[in-house]
Structures are given as structure tokens and as C-alpha cells.
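All the exercises in this workshop are built on plain-text protein records. The record below serves as our worked example for the rest of this section.
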Amino acid sequence: MLRAMTEDHLTALLTTAEAKKDDKGFLKAADGRYISLHVASSGASLTVSKIEAVKPDRHLIHARTSRGEIFVLALEDIFAGSVEQPPNSGRKAGFV
């Protein structure tokens, strides 16, 4: 059974991404970093990658990708997240 992401888990993910609030209220990852969210519901799964910013809204997460797409996800359906490190960091993305 997959465990739902908690607010503490989301906070740790955003801290790892060095996210800062932008003028539209989104928490934007530091330059060169992208977030991926791994979602599952009713037996279906989805990975939303290349997320540049998120905006928590009670039990929802608005995720804006580098292509300008906005996904609205239920926090309870997100079970993991990962952060891409900047290209020159020498580290690969890892789960938080």
C-alpha cells in the first residue's frame, strides 16, 4: 500500500529544491532544478516531471511545468517526489 504524501514530506521536498515564492504565489524551485511528483489513484499511476513551481492549496497541489502546463493534484494521491540537481552538481536526482 502506498502512503500519501504529508505536508511535512512536501515541505522537505520544497526545501531540497530550494523553492522560493514567486509573484504568482507559486513556490519556484531554484534555477536549474526541477521537481517530479509521483501520483497513484485507483490503480493508475502518473509521474509529472519537469515541475518548476508548485502552489499548495489545502489538499491540492497546483504544479506548473517548464512547458507552462498546470496540473492540479490531490496531495493524498502523491506518494513520492524527486528533485533534479543543477547540471553542474555532479549528483543525480533522488527520492526525498
Observations:
- Helices lie at 7-16.
- The chain has one domain: 7-88.
- The beta strands are 20-21, 27-28, 35-41, 44-57, 60-65, 70-74, 78-83, 94-95.
